[in-house]
Specification:
Layout: E1 11-15, E2 20-27, E3 30-39, H1 45-49, E4 57-61, E5 85-87, H2 104-110, E6 114-117, H3 121-131, E7 135-140, H4 148-157, H5 167-170, E8 176-178, E9 197-203, H6 208-216, E10 219-225, H7 230-234, E11 240-243, H8 250-267, E12 272-275, H9 277-285, E13 290-306, E14 312-323, E15 332-338, E16 344-349, E17 354-357, H10 372-385
Parallel strand pairs: 3-4, 4-5, 5-6, 9-10, 9-11, 11-12, 12-17
Antiparallel strand pairs: 1-2, 1-7, 2-6, 3-7, 8-10, 13-14, 13-15, 15-16, 16-17
């Protein structure tokens, strides 16, 4: 709940420009430094905190009721939280949900993640929109002792995400198989009993629900680390290749990802499907360029227009870099654009079953307007084998 004036602040958020937000800390104690972004989703805070795409970022939640449904292992997108910290309007209330197995504050503390409540998140969000995603330091001390000048210096000393390859820090250490399907009432997660397509998924920071969506679309999924070469990918004899989401600067990750993708395209005619960072990797491999956005797109209410059908999809997004739609070469068309700012949200090759989107068609708890993309990927593999 919001703290009153007589309560001493126990947490502090400091921006690199010297702006200071005081509040009530929860979760772990200590300090962290990262890029600060905001997310407008009304649900899915646990999915957001465990999404590897948020590596190197502190997330401001614009929706005030965060933590009210607690946490459950079923909602983890990876084993541990990846986002560096959390900023909310109100400190979490006790969990009230039949699926909850614990409280958000305890979960954050157990995983070493710092959070601050009692912040004017509307003011903070306006600042991020106007000035761009700032570098920030977040501190939590139950005694309320903070060295503000030192925190400002740490925020200003943060190197930022440009030029940073974070996929290496969140990718899997070795390959593994995946056959778990999407959650459905009343049985929960299922198992793919009759996979029809053999897919190699490159893990740049893959969310579990992406892999579940592939399995639900009939895929037998083998996950390989981000550093996999074209030869290692093709050695599995895939019917298709999937390029996952992930964090960091796409150009930095592209130093090793782009040659792999180009090698697969040059040595095989298998369909390729990319999401988020995988979309950016594919664009770079095809000759396009990427750019750093002012404050990025983070939320579950982003309208995207399919330029081929005119259909509008409500999508989940999380990216601070984007593909430059004007940089796409001949033979590559822009298929989707954001209706918020016109930025690129999808591409495909005109002569081959190779396509990608910037947004997250696997989003859980939603929206799920774009699951058809996984079915399109499966259909392209079926057509190839026919």
């Amino acid at each position: 709940m919001p703290h009153s004036d007589h309560n001493k602040p126990t947490a502090c958020l400091v921006l690199a420009n010297g702006t200071v937000f005081m509040g009530r800390g929860f979760g772990a104690t200590g300090e962290t430094v990262a890029e600060l972004c905001f997310n407008t989703a009304m649900t899915g805070y646990q999915e957001i905190m465990t999404d590897p795409s948020y590596a190197g970022q502190i997330v401001t939640f614009t929706f005030p009721h965060i933590g009210n449904v607690g946490v459950t292992p079923e909602d983890d997108e990876t084993a541990d939280p990846v986002a560096e910290g959390m900023v909310v309007r109100w400190n979490p209330t006790d969990a009230s949900n039949w699926r909850a197995s614990g409280e958000l504050s305890d979960w954050l503390a157990n995983h070493g993640r710092i959070a601050i409540g009692g912040v004017d998140t509307r003011r903070l969000t306006r600042a991020i929109r106007a000035q761009g995603a700032p570098h920030a330091a977040l501190a939590h001390d139950p005694d309320g002792n903070f060295d503000i000048e030192a925190l400002i210096a740490k925020a200003r000393g943060f190197a930022g995400l440009v030029g940073m390859d974070l996929a290496k820090s969140v990718t899997c250490a070795q390959s593994y198989r995946w056959n778990e399907t999407r959650w459905a009432w009343p049985d929960g997660f299922g198992t793919q009993p009759e996979a029809r397509h053999k897919v190699v998924a490159i893990d740049y920071g893959a969310k579990r629900n992406i892999l579940r969506c592939l399995a639900s679309a009939g895929c037998d999924v083998t996950v390989l680390p981000a550093s996999a070469t074209a030869e290692e990918v093709l050695a599995h004899g895939p019917d298709g290749v999937f390029l996952s989401n992930g964090p960091g600067d796409p150009e930095a990750t592209g130093a090793y990802a782009v040659p792999m993708i180009q090698g697969v395209m040059g040595q095989s005619d298998v369909p390729i499907f990319g999401v988020c960072l995988g979309h950016q990797m594919l664009a770079l491999a095809l000759g396009g360029k990427t750019v750093k956005m002012n404050h990025g797109h983070h939320g579950a209410n982003h309208p995207v227009k399919d330029m081929e059908t005119g259909k509008v999809e409500i999508t989940s997004m999380n990216h601070g870099f984007a593909v430059d739609g004007d940089s796409l070469p001949d033979g590559v068309m822009q298929t989707h654009v954001s209706l918020f700012d016109g930025s690129n949200c999808g591409i495909r090759m005109t002569e081959r079953p190779i396509f990608s989107v910037q947004y997250h068609p696997e989003a859980s708890p939603g929206p799920q307007d774009s699951f058809y993309l996984f079915e399109r990927f499966a259909a392209s593999m079926q057509d190839r084998s026919a």
